[in-house]
């Protein structure tokens, strides 16, 4: 992938497709607002390449992972029989990881793909203090905190103040839901919908707390939704035992 800059600072990344190339274990990083220009290599120039992606082609589109749209080629050459310089342009409207694949036999099916890969449009983090300032991913300084060790919500601010004075701008909270009563492991979740009673509070109070941290301390928060980590007494497994399978 290469980079070009125009006079108005428009960011363009170029991705070149190669015949039979599987890039599914690689990830191209892009930023929201950038343009991804996809071209074909010389080995594909004579092929009838059809390109598909599950990325949103318009800002108002809703993302559906299983829905693919075909990208239309742009033909800059004036030559009647020369389309080897054709390309397509994809605007990065929404954050997320998106898949693309292409065929060379004129079909649309992923079963007949000749090449594939992924590109990732980074999340767009904005401070909620009215400044509209963006927190760049390269500038994130994140500290992991064991939520179960923080005690009641009323004590969280005093316990987390050291994080603020240490210069961190993000806290990763381990799961805040009810944990297994025997192991008390941070990732042995008994109920994915209920807040840990150790916190002696509600989700609304937790939201107020982390919102205040973001506005007053400029510390953003993330946490895990670990639906594949479940305690043996988990409500999810009781209601859906078919979700677990052991050889």
TrEMBL record:
Pfam families, sorted: hDGE_amylase, hGDE_N
Residues covered by the Glycogen debranching enzyme glucanotransferase domain: 134-246
Domain Eukaryotic glycogen debranching enzyme N-terminal: 37-125
Domain of life where this protein originates: Eukaryota
GO term, biological process aspect, one: glycogen catabolic process
A single GO molecular function term of this UniProt record: amylo-alpha-1,6-glucosidase activity
Gene3D superfamilies cross-referenced by the UniProt entry: Glycosidases
Protein name: Glycogen debranching enzyme glucanotransferase domain-containing protein
Organism (species): Rotaria socialis
